[in-house]
Amino acid sequence: MILLGQQIENHFLEEVNRKSGSNVLECYQCGKCVSTCPVSNYMDFPPREIMQMVKLGLKEETYMANSMWFCLTCAACSGRCPREIDIPRVMEAIRHLAIGENADPDNPRVKQIRKFHEIFLDMIKRYGRNYELRMMAEFNIRTRNLFKDMHLAPKALLKGKIPLGHERVGRTKAIQRMFRMAEKLEETK
Amino acid sequence: MTTLTYFPGCSAHGTSEEFDSTLKLVMKTLGVQLEELPDWNCCGATSAHVMTENLALALPLRNLVLAERLPHKTMGIACASCYSRMKATKAEMDAHPALAQKINSTIVEEGTYKGNVEVKSMLQFFYEDIGTGQIKAKVTYPLKGLKVACYYGCLLTRPQRITRFDSPEYPMSMDHIMEALGATATPFDFKTECCGASFSISNTEVVLSLSGILLEMARESGAHAIVVACPLCQSNLDMRQPDIEKKSGITYRIPVLYITQLMALAFGYPLKDLKPAKHIVPIEPALAHIGEEIESPQKTPKSKKAVEAESEVE
Amino acid sequence: MARVGVFVCFCGANIADFVDVPAVVAEAKKIKEVKISVEYKYMCSDPGQQMIRDAIVQHRLTSVVVAACSPRMHEKTFRKALSDAGMNPYLLEVANIREHSSWVHQKDKKAATEKSCDLIRMAVAKSIANEQLHEISVPVTKRALVIGGGIAGIQAALDIADARIPVVLVEKSPSIGGRMAQLDETFPTLDCSQCILTPKMVDVASHPFIELLPYSEVLQLDGYVGNYKARIRRKASYVNFSSCTGCGACWQKCPVKVPNEFNMGIDKRKAIYSPFPQAVPNKPVIDAEHCTMLLKGKCGICAKVCEKGSIDYTMKDEIVEREIGAVVVATGYDLWDPKPYEEYGVGRFRDIITSLEFERMVSANGPTGGVPVRPSDGKVPKSVVFIKCIGSRDEAKGIEYCSKICCMYTAKHAILLHHKVHDSHAYVFYMDIRAAGKGYEEFVKRAQVETGVTYLRGRVSKIYQKGEKLMVRGEDGQLGQVVEVEADMVVLATAIYPYKDNPDLARLLGISYDQYGFLSEAHPKLRPVETAKAGIFLAGCTQAPKDIPDTVAQASAAAAKVCGLFADTTLKKDPMISVVNPEFCSGCQNCINVCPYQAIVTEDIPLGHGSKELRTVARINEGVCQGCGSCVAICRSMAISLAGFTDMQIINEVVAI
């Protein structure tokens, strides 16, 4: 059961609105986003319910949901939303707020997704461009699933689908500097 | 001779090499010069904007700034994901100059962003700048008999206020180009449904499910092959097809070709230039349909009531 | 010597809480011309008014100042009090010490009190220069024009005509009946629409006080309330109505087929046609845009088969004029085009139809014999999905408002489908069920319980084709599950929208319209059938979406307003209008250019007494002038003054501060 009425202000809603540029209060719960979203059945709470949770100020519960980690940013929902709410940006706002507050849903799949993104960004930091083979290898190692997609390896490598080598940007130091400055900016917010 | 600034994206020399190589062939035939953006960096793809705010804008911004050093007014981007990130960043920077200034001055040191280079996807460039007329004129090997399902994916036409290109629900630009090449574009209701995108590695189950649906609907539409303009879509539909077949128990064997591969073929380049070996699902069986007769569309029978109603008035 | 009475109202606590009324009263007494200054709790009440009346007599007052609420509230009340005491009502001035003082300066009682004193001082000074004005009488032509022959226009015309007032009813299509003639059965009674409508249509045709002008349109409306002149184009029908018997031989033989508008384009009609069997008048017309004879000079079959020789290809459009006292606009609604819903495959899938198309299909006199039928293959659908709010409540693709009737007619469609196709199943995707009228909730319950229709709460996100079926995808919000319905046919409840040319009609009549094109009422709550232009009234969906009971009520209300307007032989008008002094008028005509009501014309008067030479001056039409003052401001010769706001009155006010 959810208990309401103890707090008058809803800071969570204000933050989400500010970061996303949309007003979640406009959502009239029509559910078009839910049946549009290709991964709504994988989400703990589909987009419509996330909107309601934000409206009710249920910050902790929202952070623990896997919804914003499963969002593909395919933008099919916002294209159809009759109130023109930028739903992917709302998901992104919640996600960034969660990252900022170190909220981590204790969900193995979410952990995997986060790990993938961290590795990907690491590749860019090192090389300025993605090194696909290394990325896949590191992912397997870090998720303790050494043999994932191994069945693809022979064909993929033989056909040259996934190159063994990699390219890099001319001045990788410039890229690393970008990462540093970006982090600094994030902290000063 | 038009020159286009070319942004290849991280997969262009790797998993989507056949897209890159056939693109260059097609551009040669069309008389467009490509100048690869020097020292381009990864646009950040999905991971940057999922995990960060400023870095997600800075990485594409660096590329936009670098592009402004070249004299060409348009930058063409092959990968749909890179296109989406660059265009979204450009829209954000143009709409919020204060934010642009902040990111530019603190993170991106390659120059000051002016916003005077237009960003287009290759599909958009073919459709708007070249046009189906010119494309048709270069066809020496019409692809008559080949039925293709044109799959656009999420990012070529969405979000509409950023791409401002074709329809976000039922686009027809690729279909029209295919028809200009002589092929038949099948009516494919799932042309903009997501394939699973970046979950290919981290959440493979989703890709198998979503791409599986796409393969099923493409097959039901009667297509011999699927045409795409996005490396991630190609990878999900092609590389993962054996896994999908294993999971569903259905044999699809539908090859997934890049739009530039079919354009190159129609422009007269030999099959080997399409790099068929790169495909997990072989492309030759589908291409064998070229030259076959297509049956003419049947006329829908009039309803009994409608016929009665008409004869009544006679 | 001026003798002014000042009456200050407490207005309960409204004024008294923030203004020191006794102090104001005392301050007013200090003015030389003020002979009596009193206060009262509620000046507008009977005792309050009596106080004023008594004071006028007792103190032989020459003008009255009431310091109270806005004149918009009670100016009329106090003017009546003056005239009851035998004083010209325009010798009243109202000082608004509520809206202009106590309500807006609640934080500073001292300042509010000072301001109230100033306002009263100004009002006293102005009132001293007030002139005795008299209401103007304007003649009134007792004939009404009703534009639109749907149920709204029909009802208004009948009500006005029953009051023995002549009505001219103009309808743009060949027959009256409008949208209601297209309906099968109506909610919540399931009355056969034609059966309850046609008696009224026949009444209109046979009513001695109604002149029915079918196949006509209004071209121009000049004039002002009570004195309009309408120019109407009677389109050429090419059929001589007096000899035509409506036998139908002509349209049976006509070889030209045109999409049938009455049946929403589902089937075809001929170039010579009558829209539906119960048409009034029951005579065909020739559609000049498609008739081969009129376009190319070939064919002529209808003339050959007509036994009465009623066909006349040489007929021309006729322009007629009518003098009119009041107008009722009842031009009805159009359906919004659902084309923007690309995700539903609108335009691509033939088996997706609009609600009006479905209505025509289930109608006994419709194109499919009263049974719904798939346009693609003619089969009778078993699984039908109804989608509500198509365009309505959709800021992204359509319009923000709710179309009011779709929830009810969709429940009705579920019932009709069940009656016509016994082994069918209806599904309704909805966001809400709006059933606010009398018997409406009960009707929806009846639909749900009797037909087994499945209501699913959620907007449809996509429709795609699977073989012969349409797959309709949406969320069932109650279960929290995405569902897909295998449908044979999909019916879209598309939004009600004004006709595209409604704004043009509004401009023609000189009335306003909103951002969608709906005609604007004078006040949304208190004046729903009037427009801002005196003498022009609204009825039906041309003003806003509504159902038949509300339409009929609004039509009767408009008729009552018209009858009220015509109750006397003349109309009384506010005398606070502009007046030209021809002595000072130079004839520059600046005032004519600036008048928003076209109330000023030129007049040629003799140069001097008995002179033969003429000069041009301006003359203001008393009946049309609304007293806005634009001409007063622009007149460079200072020849125009506004009664009730003369220069002297204004100067007095300014000097008094």
Q: State the CATH class of the largest domain in chain C.
A: Alpha Beta
Number of strands of chain C: 34
Biggest β-sheet description of chain C: 5 strands, parallel
Instruction: State the strand order across the main sheet of chain B.
Output: 2-1-3-4
**The CATH architecture of the largest domain in chain B:** 3-Layer(aba) Sandwich
Assembly context of the chains: heterotrimer
The greatest interface here is: A-B, 59 and 58 residues
The proportion of residues forming helix of chain B, as a percent range, comes to 40-55%
The percent of residues in helical segments of chain C reads 25-40%
Straight-line N-to-C gap of chain C: 21 Å
Decide which structural class fits the backbone of chain C: alpha/beta
- What is the CATH class of the largest domain in chain B? Alpha Beta
CATH topology of the largest domain in chain C: FAD/NAD(P)-binding domain
Number-wise, the strands of chain B total 8
Strand content of chain B: 5-15%
Radius of gyration of chain C: 32 Å
The H-level CATH homologous superfamily of the largest domain in chain C, spelled out, is FAD/NAD(P)-binding domain
Mean pLDDT rating of chain C: 95
Termini separation of chain B? 63 Å
What does this structure look like?
- The complex is a heterotrimer of chains A (189), B (314) and C (657).
- Chain A has helices at 11-20, 32-36, 47-55, 59-64, 67-70, 76-80, 87-100, 108-127, 132-142, 153-158, 172-188.
- Chain A is mainly alpha-helical and 189 residues long.
- Chain A has 2 domains: 11-100, Orthogonal Bundle (Fumarate Reductase Iron-sulfur Protein, Chain B, domain 2); 108-188, no CATH class.
- The two termini of chain A are 36 Å apart.
- Chain B is α/β, with parallel strands linked by helices and 314 residues long.
- Chain B folds into 2 domains: 2-123, Glutathione S-transferase Yfyf (Class Pi), Chain A, domain 2, CATH 1.20.1050; 132-287, 3-Layer(aba) Sandwich (Rossmann fold).
- Chain B is 47% helix and 10% strand.
- Chain B has helices at 17-30, 45-51, 54-67, 80-95, 97-106, 122-130, 132-137, 160-163, 173-180, 199-202, 204-220, 231-238, 241-248, 259-266, 284-287, 304-313, and strands at residues 2-7, 32-36, 74-77, 118-121, 147-150, 184-185, 225-228, 256-258.
- In chain B, strands 2-1-3-4 form a 4-stranded parallel sheet. A 4-stranded parallel sheet of chain B has the order 6-5-7-8, with helices on both faces.
- Chain B is globular.
- In chain B, 57% of the residues are buried.
- With 657 residues, chain C is an alpha/beta fold.
- Chain C has 5 domains: 4-128, Rossmann fold; 144-227 and 317-333 and 505-570, FAD/NAD(P)-binding domain; 236-315, no CATH class; 337-497, 3-Layer(bba) Sandwich (FAD/NAD(P)-binding domain); 578-656, Alpha-Beta Plaits (2-Layer Sandwich), CATH 3.30.70.
- In chain C, strand 8 (185-186) and strand 9 form a beta hairpin.
- Chains A and B meet through helix 6, helix 7, helix 8, helix 9 and helix 11 of A and helix 2, helix 3, helix 5, helix 10 and helix 11 of B.
